[in-house]
Amino acid sequence: MLARLLRPASFAIACIAVIACGAPPVSPPSGAGATSKAPSSSRPLTNGSTTVVVSDASQNDVVICQGSPCNDCKTIGSGLSMPGGVATTNGPGGGFAKSTLDYVADSGNQRVVVFTDACETVGVLDDSGYVPSDVAVADDGTVAVTNLCAAPSCTGAGNISFYAPGSSTVTRVATGLMSQYYYGDFDKHGNFYNDGLSGSTVEVGVVPRGSKIDKATGISGIKLPGGIQIARNGTINIDDQTCPCIQIYKGSHQAGTVSLPGVKKPVTFALDKSNKHLWVTDVTSKTVDEIPYPGGGKILYQFSGFSEPIGVGVIPADRP
After folding, report:
1. Nearest of 183, 117, 104 to residue 148 by alpha carbon
2. Which of 167, 191, 250, 319 is an S-S bond match for 255, by CB 3.0 to 4.6 Å?
3. Burial class (CB in 10 A: 0-12, 13-18, 19+), 319
4. HSE on the CB side for 128, CA within 13 Å?
5. pLDDT, tens digit, 9 for 90 and up, residues 135-186
6. Model-level pTM?
7. Which domains does the chain have, with CATH numbers?
């Protein structure tokens, strides 16, 4: 089954391995769920107020970095299993009573865990029956979860689960375009953009606010899709691992390319609040890198020491 479902996204491959084998695909270096050393960097942050939240799939861990060393959050949700996409917010999210919340797709446990930067679990969103790959939060607190496939065998099609503000159970499901859903993000109007596969064909879709139908955007040219982010100016930014780069679209028309020299295999990325920089996970180099946006170019700053960095979020968060 693994060979048949191999995909460009490292997270998807690892997810399927967990489902098939019942264990993470990479053994922790120092005992179950433990890292020998927290990820760190020897240089000060370009912006000292920035906090970077990263999921490490092989370590079943979320790592929060502001300066060095980083802080492991292994206890959130009473333990994670193959954490994937990450979302961050600047204010009350999903109806929960905390000022700043983070979200992580807990794929092996079929749920999303909501937590704070102090590693405190705030809530859990039930996604039973599916393998979540990413999570995003709209301005009104609506949460969207892209589901890679149906659990436990991963042979059934995925979908997009929506949670109304304050709800811990699914209130709306969108389908109609893809068999495997990868990543997604909301625009300022509450429309949810997403990427993934229909069979072996790459698709980029959008679920209009309140809808249950995922419609094609007409975007083409992406060969190996990863993370997707909507910038403040409304452009659609999609990670393409073949470049490696991030392609920028206005509507269905390509408007630019963010080059990622030094990044070997980008999986997901997050724009900072100013939309002048982005942070990208590199699963091959096992690093999280800061890159100028939208110009691209050399790595400005780097956190290293991860095993399998997948999801990334930035605080203060970018809001369209």
Report:
1. 183
2. 250
3. middle
4. 3
5. 999 999 999 999 999 998 898 999 999 999 999 999 999 999 999 999 999 9
6. 0.88
7. 2-26+53-315 (2.120.10.30)
